[in-house]
User: Fold this.
Amino acid sequence: MNTQDYIQLEETYGAHNYKPLDVVIERAAGVWVWDVDGKKYMDFLSAYSAVNQGHCHPRILRAMIDQAQRLTLTSRAFRNDQLPLLERELCELSGYEMVLPMNSGAEAVETALKAARKWGYTVKGIPDGEAEIIACAGNFHGRTITIVTFSTELQYSAHFGPLTPGFVTVPYGDAAALEAAITPNTAAFIVEPIQGEGGVIVPPEGYLRQVRDICARHNVLFIADEIQTGLGRAGKLFACDWEDVHPDVVIIGKALSGGFYPVSAMLASREVLGVFQPGDHGSTFGGNPLGCAVAREALNVLVDEGLIDRAAELGEYFMGRLKRLESDNIQEVRGKGLLIGVELTPEAGGARRFCEALKERGLLCKETHHTVIRFAPPLVASREEIDWALGHIEDVLMTL
Ligand SMILES: *Cc1c(COP(=O)(O)O)cnc(C)c1O
Assistant:
């Protein structure tokens, strides 16, 4: 079978809820992937930052095989010998007191919303059924019905109603708007420290500190969705660390398993995660020993290989070179660490054609919001690999 055969099969039998680049990948290692025709590409998306540790990292692979040969699933009806270790390691690494593991990012977001509502009723004293949660315009937190309720991207919620009440949105990066939207019934504010899917939007310097302060003053939980920005991507363990801010709740996923397996988690204080009683919430696969063993090693790799500092250094270099580029196509270059967006001018004709041109040159990246190219290579990329990519990126931005 060749590329066209696979595409035809997928178009025939699969739901058309994505519009992927027409490359059919069959294997990968580190920053590189190979398609079914044997062509090699550098991955500049990293599965939306789920493979920060690089594809098929040998240490994570080993941990997965070892664990799969021993024990994969107990359900939470019984205990297993991996979950407690992951929980302790996550708390020690992050500075939080408690962990609730789930599978997908959206599930962890749902978990945080449920915890925030229950905290609002049982700790803050919000009248039953009245809790409000504030989110930001341009957010992306996942695809469940409740989560798309507070998306401002109309396609995400259109025809999926009736939607979930109790959510309001405020402009992103605007602390005064947040404070004005808070009422006595506000339980939480959920925000991405950098909006990834929204187009790599970096809020004004000081915003997260202001959010921290406002939430504390009004007894509102500050929930940071670090599913994409966390675990080194933005050049710190959490992107909130750039402003030395400690949110009440942090949500992680994606790179938590280095791309091997869906693992996500909600991290919080005992006051917040302590609201859950047996039976309040759960997941058959959440906290399973296979996922926990994979996540433990994925975290070890991040730390042992110094990938967080590496993202900061490479990101600064990469962004510096893009910023020096004098191309009529570029409106703005922004980002932190190795989460970098190039906003194209309205005249540039959209980001997709740049991604297609880069694909032809052996570089896989994805447009977001039509006019932004997102660059997010695995954090294990070498300086030489980054230079090779930059050569093509500069060329395409200058000549297309
Ligand atoms: C990817 C993402 C999610 C959703 O994660 P899934 O694993 O796709 O459910 C939520 N929030 C942010 C910021 C994300 O980037």
Notes: The chain has two domains: 3-56+306-399, 58-304. Residues 105-124 form the longest helix (20 residues).
